[in-house]
Structures are given as C-alpha cells and as structure tokens.
Write a structure and sequence with these properties.
Blueprint: H1 3-22, H2 73-76, H3 80-83, E1 85-86, E2 89-90, H4 100-113, H5 115-118, H6 127-130, H7 142-145, H8 149-158, E3 159-160, E4 163-164, H9 172-190, H10 201-205
Antiparallel strand pairs: 1-2, 3-4
Helix pairs in contact: 4-9, 8-9
Length: about 210
C-alpha cells in the first residue's frame, strides 16, 4: 500500500467519525419515538378488579362480587354437604351415611392430619404441642361438644385461630368422616357406665 492510499484511507475514517459524532448531541432527541401500534392508546378503559364485560346469563363467576378472584368451588357447590349450612344456619346432622367404615375413614384421616396437634385421643397434647406449639382445647371439652356438626365441618375446612384449614388436603366426604370420628372420640372420653350396653356393663365394671 502506498503512502497516498494510506493517507486517503485515514482521511476517510476521520471524516466518517466526524459525521457520526456531529449527529450525537449528548441528550435525548426531541422527536417522538416510533409508535408501532397507536390503537393501544385509545382502547376503552376499565377500572381495576372489575369485569370488563357483563357475564352471559347462566354463567358461574370465578370469584365474589364483581371481582374475578376466589375459589370456584364456593360458587359451584352450594348445598349443605359442601358448606355445612342450610340457608345460613349450621346443620346438626352429618349429610352422609355414617357407617363403621365411614367412621374408620375419619379416624384414618384424623390420625394423619389432626393427631399431630390434638393427639389420637383428642386431648390436645400431640407431638407438635409437646415441642412448644400452643395447645388446642381437648376435643371432648363441653365447648367443642356443643358445636354443631356444620360448625365442626367449617372449622376443619377453613381453620380457626391458630388452626389452619384442611379443605385442600381433605375432600368434603373425608371432612365429614373426620366430624363423625370426632363425635366418636367425644363419646368415648365422656362416656359413663350408663352409655355401655347393659349386657356388657359387667365386663366394664371388672
């Protein structure tokens, strides 16, 4: 490469550099940015947390009120089997066929999910309590015995005070089975000799 060609190349590089530098003013351009879709600026506005459209007749909302939040099963399932209530009042009977197998199913679920705090006898001295957790009241305490079956079902479902709810771990049927087993526990802890069948009282007395 000759000296003249090198000089021309160097001169060209310097000119290009000066041209590019002259276009850089060191601050933002006053021209508006390129807007690819201006239609988005004029779309209808909706208030946050409200439905944008009126739901068609007969549809089931996902949440409560005008929001789209909340568990769907609270709206799809509406009878006493799912909520323990009839027209806002707690039900007193278990809406299921309470058989020996049903109660044993409740015992199995109780021993898995409840006994860690309540212990298997319902005294409230489970392993978690022995490690410092606030003890729950005995399940055979008169205050607990006075709960309706619907209230017990609701407590198992949604929890109360320090107790969490178990509606995600236990189906509705299993929750009613646990209610039936709690009633059996209460009877076993509060029973007297009069509650024992007459033909078996002699064995108990011994």
């Amino acid at each position: 490469m000759t000296l003249n060609s090198c000089s021309r190349t160097f001169f060209g590089v310097v000119c290009c550099t000066l041209i590019f530098m002259s276009g850089c003013r060191g601050y933002r351009s006053e021209k508006p940015p390129i807007h690819m879709n201006p239609n988005m600026d004029t779309q209808p506005k909706y208030i946050a947390q409200q439905l944008s459209l009126t739901p068609p007749s007969g549809t089931i909302p996902w949440g409560k009120g005008n929001t789209t939040q909340g568990p769907r099963q609270d709206f799809v399932k509406s009878d006493s089997f799912y909520h323990g209530k009839v027209k806002g009042s707690w039900i007193t009977t278990i809406p299921a066929d309470v058989t020996i197998d049903f109660v044993k199913r409740g015992q199995e679920r109780f021993n898995i999910y409840c006994a860690v705090c309540h212990d298997r006898a319902g005294s409230g001295k489970g392993m978690v309590v022995q490690r410092g957790f606030i003890p729950p009241p005995p399940l055979y305490d008169q205050r607990i015995v006075a709960y309706t079956n619907g209230e017990l079902f609701d407590i198992i479902s949604h929890g109360i005070r320090n107790m969490p709810g178990y509606k995600h771990q236990l189906s509705e049927s299993d929750r009613w089975a646990v209610v039936s087993y709690i009633r059996a526990l209460q009877k076993s802890q509060r029973a007297t000799l009069k509650d024992v069948p007459s033909h078996m009282r002699n064995k108990v007395a011994q």
